[in-house]
Amino acid sequence: MGSLGTLARAETVVATTAHPYAGLWITDDARVRHELLPSGRYIEARGTREGAYRGRYEVSGTRIECWDDTGFTADGVFVDANTLHHGGMVLRRREQAPLALPAR
Question: Can you give the pTM of this predicted structure?
Fold first, then answer.
């Protein structure tokens, strides 16, 4: 899962404010991983396919709408601060491991 965070950092991010739902969301089996970037973009990993999908998202209240760069759309709802029901899946907020600093 560490490379998903690396992919997110490689995205061009122009964040004006940190969104309360920004961060990493993962299914219980860790097969699907969504990283909601503060810029309103997301990166999704599926199984071993890191960066499988990318797109934009908008949140209104507890609802989320996503538009994949390929044209696919999905919506969902944050049922609480740590649970997202999205596209027929249940994802839970996960803490990301900090980036490892290069050895000197």
Answer: 0.74
